[in-house]
Amino acid sequence: MRLVKQNIERDGSGTITLYPEEPEDMWFTYNLIREGDLLRASALRRVTTESATGSTSSTRVHMNLIISVTALDFDMQAAQLHVSGRIIEETKYTKVGQFHTLDLELNRNFTLEKKDGWDSVARGLVREACDPVKSADTWVVVMQEGLANIAVLTGQRTVHRQKIEMNVPKKRGVGKQSDHDKGMERFFQTTLDTLLRQIDLSAPKPILLASPGFVAQGFQKFIVEYATRTGNKALLAQKSNLVVVHSASGYMHALDEVLRSPEVLSQLKDTKYARETRLMEDFKTMLRKDDGRAWYGPNEVEQAVEKGAVGRGGGVLLISDTLFRAQDIASRKRWVRLVDKVRDVEGGEVRILSGTHESGKQLEGLGGIAAILTFPLDDLDDADDEEDINGPNESTTNS
Amino acid sequence: MSRHKLVKNLDLDEVLDDYDGGLDEDVDEELAPEDREHLRRGTEEVRQTLGADFNTSNREIEDTLYYYYYDVPKTVNYLLSKWSIQRYFRAPLTWKDQKANTGSKKSKKKATEPKADGKAQTAARKKENRKSQNEETATSSGSLLESLAAGSTKTHHPGPASIAKSQEAEGLGRSSKKQAKGQPYQESQGRPTPASSRPALGEGSEESAVSQLGDLKIQPAPTGSPSGFATAILGLEKNRPCFSRTPAVPGMPFTIQNVANSKAFTGPSPDDVVLKAQSSSKGAKPAPKKSEKNAEEESEHLNGHLKTLSIGDENAKPKSKLLNVTAEHAKAKLKKSANFVVIGHVDAGKSTLMGRLLHDLQSVDQRTIDKYRKESGRLGKASFALAWVLDQGTEERERGVTIDIANFQFETETTKFTILDAPGHQDFVPNMIAGASQADFAILVIDASTGGFESGLKGQTKEHALLVRSMGVQRVIVAINKLDAVQWSQDRFDEISQQILAFLTTAGFMPKNLAFVPCSGLAGGNVVHKATDSLASWYTGEPLLSLLEDYEPTERAIEKPLRLTTDDVFRGGVQNSLSVSGRLDAGTLQTGESLLIAPVSHTATIKGIEVNAEPFDWAVAGQNVILHLADVDPKHLRPGDVLCSPSSPIQSIKSFAVKLLAFEHIMPMHCEVHRGRTHAPGKIAKLTALLDKGSGARLKGKKPRLIQPGSVAEVLVEMEEAQPLETGNRVILREGGVTIGAGLIK
């Protein structure tokens, strides 16, 4: 993303013009735009004109439109962002109040004006998005016998690309081993085929193969054998990029363990997801000690911040970016205020975790917000019935 | 190659050349002195046996003897039978008819000779053929043939060859000749001559010449009553002897003729029976030829079968017999059966110990073990030979580690056992859970070698023990293995058993349900037999096997609705394209019953049931079964699916409350939920309450934000996808390769 023009007043009002360059930027944009914001971008709109005689003709017209955002739709897989809203500026072809859905395109400027002004989180996001240091994508195949999940890790997100599930017959007595071996081979072949459809081999990227036991090793061997057999040079060239890592299972949440593994950390330690994973791990370690210095849940953390426990000298606030995507303006403001307080007033550290990464998902499990305190606090959870982030949690107990 | 071609390609000159002249000399010259001696002694013996008044020439006896390769009893039999036939047929044989018969006779004779005969015999036969061809005298057996031939049907001569020289001119003579020269044996065998071509001849190459004769005669009258011809020649009065239709013992085709069997033609011929049976079952494939001996019963049997059989109707739904399975089960009085899981840390020697057990029980033969020993030696893992009995997987053998549960059945005098050999490696705990969920009791194998015990204690020994406990296993036999590595030290045994006993009792096992045995899987002491090592003499208790047999079967949930957690989905063979294996957790089932597959809600029909690799019509809770399914697409089935009865299906649920014992710190987190082979991702959404360890009552106070290891709590688990789980199921929660808790669904 390139920052083309920034025009922000002291009170936070004003506009920013951005130039998205790669799909990843769409994700930033998605996190940046909220309902009610004003967005100006180029649009292709079908215009129907009526001639004097009453005959109609419709043409497609390129124009710049300004809309007031009513809904956002982000396609994770294709990284496309569709923003719907009402037109607020009359043009030659459109009237005020008509609806339009803008499909933001790469390599085309757009200008954004925040309804409630540019807060620190939004500005931070723009800064981060325009950081020229890019982290390379990493492909991960987490697998176990009969199950494989293919995901791509980018700086900001974990994109789950494909799940492969197959029945591999188990070992059964004497002489029936071939069923299992054949099943495994079929499973490997399907996984590899799927992977090759997803991945662009011309740009080498690290590919992590993770599994319990020996499945990943077997898969690595299979890939090399397959590439040699079929003379697939592009694939063979990836040989050095294949890294076998241990994971406890083939499910997506085993990614967490993959990212913590020394093999990965040594290669990717500066990436956002590696940092976030480490942070979550630290927090859980603190929590296990149960010494009153690690707290999770919105109310507890807010109280802790009130008491000044998340401040200079080790105080860390972990917050999931999903909280800022809340539809409800008030709750977004609540979290922005909290972030501002910790960072600016208390001097603590704030980490905004991507909700699509495994670490972010773990944080969401804890209520989306957690904090490591500078001094132990007890009885933060005295509040009788605490409010949950996602509204009151219906207990769907089946008993 | 077609027969015609063979005949066409035959070089007549060559055959004749080869055969020309010197045959008389051949025989006599070729007879070695020892042969003559044999012949002389044989003749004497035969004479003696037959008695003085038996009228036959020396020459004849000699020929016969030579034919049978000096077999005196056969010769006697033959001569006797010939004699009995002579009494009926005394017409002189004309040369012409003989010619017509010789070919087929000769080839028939070949057919009846056992093919496995050595070359020596072939050579002898060759000689003999030539010799007999020189005989100009028409034997009395020849006169029999003559009279048969007179009935306008050409038939066989059952006796040894007496072939006119001039037969060489005949096509078949040539082929027999060729055969004598070492042509493939079968080529000429059983083939009809032009003169005697009858369908029965062609097909009956395996049958004795005598029974062929029978076939031949009834062919014109397939209704089964003897033909006019047969009646004419055999008279068929009850007391008249005729040719027996009993199949001859190969190699002695002519010995039975004097055993008159007058009943032979009174009933329909076996062929007719078969034909009739075939025509009565429409579109049925031709039934295989039955041996004629018990053709009567066979045919009845066959008829019955064909009636019930409906070939070409494979899609027919398997019919349920509507058995009262509970009653059948009570009636059946099955042998006591038990499943046990073998658990312990990796490399404790679980598979080897079980291999030893099976080896000493001779459930696996020594040859297999020797083969494994050789193969494992080649991989440099000779000590794994016994483990290979259970570790069948290619990868398992290469790496020397059990990966998946191995199933093996064996039987002692009192009990049928199923071994579930669990993997010890941490990564394969899910597989171990799958195995333990099927077990009635457990063997905990502990490595007694120096350092082995200690590392095991840190490793999977404790985890496994806790897991089996939380899955409801009450009884544990602790096998303290590899004691031979520490010179069967009693101190070591005591030390280990003390520690393990203390641990297991705190884990909730009753001391009376625990047993300790010092043993060695590799060397084989105290497994099936008592240890022979004098160092081990301090142990006076029973070996492992006796402890296994002490098992008392527990009550099974037979009356409850059907639940079967599938362990594996596979192709069960040529006829069964889809089979599942698993243990019946509750209820009963029978063939033809329709099942509901959870969580996909598809139905399937049971085509067949196997219990302990034997077909059964029904199965009850507690048994490990293989079900062959029909009417279902394999893609709907996964290992871990639950099969239940459509009338009381299991619900698939997305979230449930579970009362659990924490093994690790628990906070709201991701986890995998295991139940038997089923495992699925989910998360602990909420820590509802801490519970009192003793009473299970909710502890007063605030909502927990962290559950400490060892405490009991109630949590809410949310699954990513709905899973077939119900109240009372035991589940294991794991995360990051570590078991974090185990409990019961509320």
From TrEMBL, chain A:
It comes from the Eukaryota. GO terms for cellular component: cytoplasm; Dom34-Hbs1 complex. Its main location: cytoplasm. It is found in: Cytoplasm. Residues 1-131 form the eRF1/Pelota-like N-terminal domain. Its cofactor is a divalent metal cation. Pfam families: eRF1_2 (PF03464), eRF1_3 (PF03465), Pelota_N (PF26356). Keywords: Cell cycle, Cell division, Cytoplasm, Meiosis, Metal-binding, Mitosis. GO terms for biological process: cell division; meiotic cell cycle; nonfunctional rRNA decay; nuclear-transcribed mRNA catabolic process, no-go decay; nuclear-transcribed mRNA catabolic process, non-stop decay; ribosome disassembly; RNA surveillance; translation. SUPFAM superfamilies: Dom34/Pelota N-terminal domain-like, L30e-like, Translational machinery components. GO terms for molecular function: metal ion binding. PANTHER family: PELOTA (PTHR10853), PROTEIN PELOTA HOMOLOG (PTHR10853:SF0). Belongs to the eukaryotic release factor 1 family. Pelota subfamily. Component of the Dom34-Hbs1 complex, a complex that recognizes stalled ribosomes and triggers the No-Go Decay (NGD) pathway. In the Dom34-Hbs1 complex, dom34 recognizes ribosomes stalled at the 3' end of an mRNA and engages stalled ribosomes by destabilizing mRNA in the mRNA channel. Following ribosome-binding, the Dom34-Hbs1 complex promotes the disassembly of stalled ribosomes, followed by degradation of damaged mRNAs as part of the NGD pathway. NCBIfam families: pelota (TIGR00111). This is Protein DOM34 homolog. The lineage of its organism: Eukaryota, Fungi, Dikarya, Ascomycota, Pezizomycotina. The gene is DOM34.
From TrEMBL, chain B:
CDD domains: EF1_alpha, HBS1-like_II. One of its GO terms (molecular function) is GTP binding. It is found in: Cytoplasm. PROSITE patterns: G_TR_1, G_TR_2. The keyword Transcription does not apply. Residues 335-562 form the Tr-type G domain. Residues 21-32 have a biased composition (Acidic residues). The keyword NADP does not apply. GO terms for biological process: cytoplasmic translational termination; regulation of translation. Keywords: Cytoplasm, Elongation factor, GTP-binding, Hydrolase, Nucleotide-binding, Protein biosynthesis, Translation regulation. Component of the Dom34-Hbs1 complex, also named Pelota-HBS1L complex, composed of dom34 and hbs1. This is Elongation factor 1 alpha-like protein. It comes from Ramalina farinacea. The lineage of its organism: Eukaryota, Fungi, Dikarya, Ascomycota, Pezizomycotina.
